[in-house]
Amino acid sequence: MAIIDAVKRIRERIEEACIRSGRNCAEIQLMGVSKFQDIGKIEKAWQAGIRLFGESRVQEAVEKFIPFKQQHPETELHLIGSLQRNKAKVAVSLFEGIQSVDREALITELGTWTKQRDKPLGILLEFHTGEETKSGFPDEEHLYRATEKVLSYPGLLLRGLMTMAPYTDDEVQIRAAFRSLVSVRDKLASRFPSCDWSCLSMGMSQDFEIAIEEGSTLIRIGTALFGEQDL
Ligand SMILES: *Cc1c(COP(=O)(O)O)cnc(C)c1O
Q1: Residue 230 pLDDT > 70, yes or no?
Q2: Which of 43, 53, 60, 84 lies deepest, with the highest CB count within 10 Å?
Q3: Which atom, in ligand 1's list, is nearest to the CA of 229?
Q4: CA distance 52 to 128
């Protein structure tokens, strides 16, 4: 399927999921996950209206998006894969947001490097909801401490939470993972009411409709948009 048709189809599916769950589709941001995709495909996604892109590796993102952003300054780029501390400085200079913030040491590192930025770096705290990789904070106590740490750095702007549902066909399990993200967000919002918890990044190609039904505000779509990755 051509990328422009894929985007159209995804937008229709977003709309249908919104109608089913009584939501307004203006609340849902569509991210194009462009890892392993070349610049030609990213350009096509841009032409189809995608403005938010997600990459999972810093080096790959540097190579593709430094030139891409010069051509398209309105691009918003987020890191969605695990970040090593020694790449934090580069990450801070390239990304508008980091969605995969999963440990306190990383917050310290990002907070330190963002002192040189003029705009704060958007932060989503990643919550572990049962996906095989161990990334993400394990419980709300860890998230409370992480929140306090983010708040101590003026260059970091907390925007909400991110999760990856378990990789399974079991809809019940997937739905439960998304519900647990909403429930932990509610706890954080009552503990830190002046913070912005509006962004819930959940849902990928296989499960974004369930995620929307459960309250997602940002879906991260790779395969359904770009096709299978040719590695
Ligand atoms: C690769 C990736 C996605 C996109 O996955 P698809 O199933 O291809 O849509 C979303 N989120 C994260 C964190 C990823 O690594």
Answers
A1: no
A2: 53
A3: 8
A4: 23
